[in-house]
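Posting this for the archive.
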Amino acid sequence: MRVRFAPSPTGALHVGGARSALYNWLMARGNDGAFVLRIEDTDRERSTQENVDQILDALRWLGLDWDEGPIFQSQRADRHQELLQKLLDEGKAYRSTATAEDVKAFKEKYGADRGFRGEDEGEGAVRLRVPDEGETVVHDLIRGDTVFQHVHIDDPVIARADGSVLYNFAVAVDDMDAEITHVVRGEDHLSNTPKQLLVYEALGAVPPVFAHLPLLHGPDGKKLSKRHGASSVQELRDAGYLPEAVRNYLALLGWGSEDDQTILSTEDLVRRFDITRVQKNPARFDEQKLRWMNGVYIRNMDVDELTERIEAFTGRSGLREAVAISQEKIHTLADFWPLAGFLFDGPVEDAKAREKWLDHEQHRHTLVRAREALAHVEPFDVNGIELALREIVESGGFKPKDVFQPIRVAIAGTTISPGIFESLAVLGREEALRRLDEALATT
């Protein structure tokens, strides 16, 4: 099996393209095949090196390594011209100056559903000859057979008047030369497939097997766009998602294992993936579901590995203790610093939290008692801290929040933090008492 991913470098790699790449990669890895990367950069105005670099960066982050490439379509111009001339010499293609108005006039004369047929004028764009008889059938592993009657297909333009070839010709030639056996791509390419099959037929080549993936929608059922949240791979990375969780989630968009298991390692995905089980209907990308899945991966991760990931994400070091007490509360790497950053950078500014939990006499009184108790805890660890603070709750007849929240706001500046006992232990006695004293001095 030989499959390919052939993005156009006119922008970042979006979620839909990433899923196409993933499905091709899973097929190659699960069938001892080859995964070929081709950059379709013939749109010279919109194709940039920056976009190429973004695509390669996204694929590497996702862990989708390629076996061959990247092959740049723009560097294959000589081969495209060679086969274009071959079709012209054999009379399977011809030059025509026909314009859109000429095509319209043809259809007015012969019928709107009649495919345009031109004559060789020796100049102009190159069109592929389509026979009037017969049909081209797209055998699709997902959608089944789709039949295109030749009589309805226009002779397609396969090269401009200046000789530069168009997409459907270049793609067919490149797939043929790379000996691609399976083409897996979005269903928005389905209308291109009969034209590419006609190119294969004209060149006397065996076409690949096709599979057209349903497009991605947002949770509201509308075409996926920026309004639904992160839409590119880089945005997902910058939002703190893990590549293994993204692989897992993208694989399940339109496909599912036979036992409907949700959390699947990459090894499981490689072993189980079957392109014929992909559904025909549009799949829905819901970032909240991805966030949930990412949280599962984070909670199942070894603390040392998670620490390494978070330190790389934040650019900070020495975070292990804070990571250990935050692991159960975060869903993405980006969640960590808003939750636990106060342990390193000091309390944040949350005026409402201070007003509610530090400006009242009762809370000030409990904070004084807590400060006195914590000063004598020995050893200053989670168990000792919890015993001391719960004694204040029980002896004073307080609700736990009336003791714990003032302490939390004093040390964190806000009401959101990892566990209060764990946070105090990570801070250490000296820093914890300093922050409590500072809070008391300003209330």
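The CA atoms of residues 255 and 277 lie 6 Å apart. The mean pLDDT is 95.
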